[in-house]
Amino acid sequence: MGQLPASSAVLPVREYLLVALTAAVVTFLLVGLVRLLAFRIGAVAYPRQRDVHVKPMPRMGGLAMYGGVLGGMLLAHQLPVLRSAFDFSNDPYAVMVGGGVIVLVGVLDDRFELDSLTKLAGQVTAAGILVLFGLQWLFFWVPWGADKGALLALDQNQGAVLSVLLAVTMINAMNFVDGLDGLAAGIGLIAAAATCAFCIGVLAKNQGDVGSYPPALIAATLAGACLGFLPHNFNPARIFMGDSGSMLIGLMLAAATTSASGKLNYDSLGATDVLGLLSPLLVVAAVLFVPLLDLLMAVVRRTRRGESPFSADKMHLHHRLLEIGHSQRRAVLLIYLWAGVLAFSAVALTVFDVVVVVWCLGIGLLLAFFVSAVPRLREARR
């Protein structure tokens, strides 16, 4: 990994914010055109028994989000500092190409409803493109072998398999959680913002290590795209992101995590700080706790009934919140709260005292649990 000269070792926070804002504006403006296109070609979600919307809704919102990502990347390529993310790494190019493939697969699914094996093939192809561009794991931390763990150096095949598995898992996790207006876009925004904050913190510690530029850039553009799409998608939604959007979010989160965790200069981070080494994983694992748990519960539930793990039902966590008595908006905001508490607590572990963060995390989780249970408590009192 290269380092910028001392005079250039700055934190390009303003540039990251500008890139995120550009991605948000481009996405916001493109949604109207994509909405018209979706109606014209028939990419429309008609209400089904397991759905919560009651009228036909255009899909394919991920196409607008991908346009926002491209807009943010194009601007970053022209900025004086963030251009280094392209000069020293192929990771941004990998995301643009791989993202294009996953969005194409998602658009086809939004229009023609592809079968699960075809979608899985498309997901593996998009993840494989990331690997072909060199975006894969190089090291993996394990909690044994030394006083505070050790780093395993992965060969090309091992790193490729781990990268593809992570990408496919995250793609399907985000796809599974996309069930309420604004839910996937909000969780994607929280995940990307937390990951970007962590990478900027690493950049500060490494005094301008350009290896930290690509993951933060990927996360910033994704955060902007989610932010720009959210006004159109929050309840009552005027468009759905569809599989083209949810799978793009999952792929880009996997790319940002792989870029951050697999290519960081661990020596400069301090090998004794285990939490620092694991923070990229903690950020994404924490923020994806809800969709990953949702994915696991859905697979177990469907398998026990003798059904395909990819079959649809109305038993997801967000459906359960609706059954408890929460409105759509409140259910989505509650999941935002859970995801935000977990994600930013994981980031805070690398910056603040562990005891303070654990106490704050506990208070935040208790608050989230209490607010989630309010309808049940009211019913019990009655």
Can you describe this structure?
By secondary structure, the protein is mainly α. It contains 16 helices and 4 strands. It has a domain at 11-272. The strands form 2 sheets. A two-stranded antiparallel ribbon has the order 1-2. Strand 3 and strand 4 (150-153) form a beta hairpin. Helix 1 (13-41) packs across helix 8, helix 5 packs across helix 6 and helix 11 packs antiparallel against helix 14.
Summarize this, please?
Keywords: Cell membrane, Magnesium, Membrane, Metal-binding, Transferase, Transmembrane, Transmembrane helix. The protein has about 375 residues and is mainly α.
Query: What gross morphology would you assign?
Result: globular
- Total of DSSP H or I helical runs spanning 4+ residues: 16
Query: Distance N terminus to C terminus?
Result: 63 Å
- Indicate the mean pLDDT: 80
Structural class: mainly alpha
| Count of distinct strands | 4
Radius of gyration: 20 Å
What structural keywords apply?
single chain; 382 residues; mainly alpha; two-stranded antiparallel ribbon; two-stranded antiparallel sheet; 4 strands; 70% helix; disordered N terminus; metal ion binding; transmembrane
